[in-house]
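can u do me a favor
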């Protein structure tokens, strides 16, 4: 059954009201999901878009302005950032979530496969990183995923061409690895919880290509 993006957006708006009242997340999503007959994947999408007050507060305390990234070490959640940027290039919806971070829904609905826009997406990510003037960058891809080695090699090539200090690797625990850097680039809640500071790389790319994300509120 195809994912009904319009229904996901409608559900997210309704769940947002319940989130503002600090009602339990699972109960709120199920309440609206049952009302609108959402599939399991659609409910997962709603959870991805709507963050609860404590999550919003946590993200706000860690989201770092690009101007403060200069001279810092940055760990990048490879798949998390790449998939969101590819989604923009493919003309699919990317959402400005209630915690201020951009998120796509492709990761919820399907496994990742490189596409015709993968190389361009990587170039845009490296360009965005270069513009931050970091001390060093580590772009990490989840080792268990089949194309991670190829993507890491592509990232290293693009970083070298751009003169960006750092490297790209595959790793079994990407969340833990990048959270150890001064700044982590990811919209993953697990990373936000662990990291000292967070930056939204897809938002920088969106600005550079004139992409306007969907807003649910």
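np, heres the sequence
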């Amino acid at each position: 059954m195809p994912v009904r993006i319009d229904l996901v957006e409608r559900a997210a708006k309704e769940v947002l009201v319940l989130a503002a009242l600090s009602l339990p997340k699972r109960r709120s999503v199920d309440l609206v999901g049952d009302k609108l007959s959402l599939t399991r994947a659609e409910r997962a999408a709603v959870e991805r878009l709507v963050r609860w007050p404590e999550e919003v507060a946590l993200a706000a305390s860690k989201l770092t302005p690009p101007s403060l990234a200069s001279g810092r070490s940055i760990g990048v959640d490879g798949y998390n950032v790449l998939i969101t940027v590819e989604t923009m290039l493919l003309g699919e919806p990317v959402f400005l979530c209630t915690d201020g971070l951009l998120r796509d829904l492709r990761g919820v609905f399907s496994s990742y496969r490189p596409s015709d826009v993968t190389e361009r997406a990587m170039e845009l990510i490296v360009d965005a990183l270069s513009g931050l003037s970091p001390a060093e960058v580590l772009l990490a891809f989840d080792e268990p995923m089949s194309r991670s080695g190829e993507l890491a090699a592509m990232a290293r090539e693009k970083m070298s061409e751009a003169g960006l200090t750092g490297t790209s690797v595959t790793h079994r625990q990407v969340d833990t690895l990048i959270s150890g850097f001064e700044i982590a680039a990811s919209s993953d809640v697990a990373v936000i919880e662990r990291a000292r500071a967070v930056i939204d790389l897809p938002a920088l790319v969106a600005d550079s290509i004139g992409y306007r994300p969907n807003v649910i509120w």
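Strands lie at 73-77, 94-96, 102-104, 136-142, 166-171, 183-185, 198-199, 214-215. hope that helps!!
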